[in-house]
Amino acid sequence: MMKSGSIEFAQVDFTNPDARTWAKNIIKQNILGEAKAYGYMCDFSEYTPMDSKFYNFDRAAPTYHNRYPYEWAKLNKEAIEEAGMEDEVVYFMRAGSTFSPSQTSLYWMGDQLVTYDAYDGLQSALIGLLNGGISGFSLGHSDIGGYTSVNINKIPYRINRD
């Protein structure tokens, strides 16, 4: 199990054929079938531990760490195609690698602060979108107005709309 803020999660070992089938069935049956979702987020692929042990990958774990976002995107694309919904569903990610654009319909810039600055605010999202486009990630989005508010050294990093 891994943590990201208050969220606890696990990753599926996509080198295991049974695990790939299981994950695809979750997408097809639960997300596309039961929930009737036409858009969803594929998150947390950037967290693959550097010391992971994989079912069928004999190279060093850091190599698969960089491949994991691609495999996660590819699995989602395959599940949507197998469900016959490739022209109907949009899924988005915030992590990727060199080969990921061919597997993902949309990229998200991550959790920006609700500020306008270049450090982690709206300006940083625009810079990320422009750089992503130049790198082949032509479709992207960010949270308009930011997402995250934090207090660092008692300085609030958010917009006060009083």
SSE layout and pairings?
Layout: E1 2-4, E2 7-9, H1 17-34, E3 39-41, H2 61-82, E4 90-93, E5 106-108, H3 122-134, E6 140-141, E7 150-152, E8 155-157
Parallel strand pairs: 3-4, 4-5, 5-6
Antiparallel strand pairs: 1-2, 7-8
Helix pairs in contact: 1-2
Describe the structure.
- With 162 residues, the chain is of the alpha/beta class.
- It has two domains: 2-107, no CATH class; 109-135 and 144-162, no CATH class.
- 33% of the residues lie in helices and 15% in strands.
- The chain contains three helices and eight strands, in the order E-E-H-E-H-E-E-H-E-E-E.
- The chain has helices at 17-34, 61-82, 122-134; strands spanning 2-4, 7-9, 39-41, 90-93, 106-108, 140-141, 150-152, 155-157.
- It has a four-stranded parallel beta sheet with strand order 3-4-5-6, covered by helices on one side. A two-stranded antiparallel sheet has the order 1-2. A two-stranded antiparallel ribbon has the order 7-8.
- The longest helix has 22 residues, at 61-82.
- The radius of gyration is 17 Å and the shape is globular.
In a nutshell, what does this entry contain?
The protein contains 3 helices and 8 strands, in the order E-E-H-E-H-E-E-H-E-E-E. The protein is of the alpha/beta class and 162 residues long. Helix 1 crosses helix 2 (61-82).
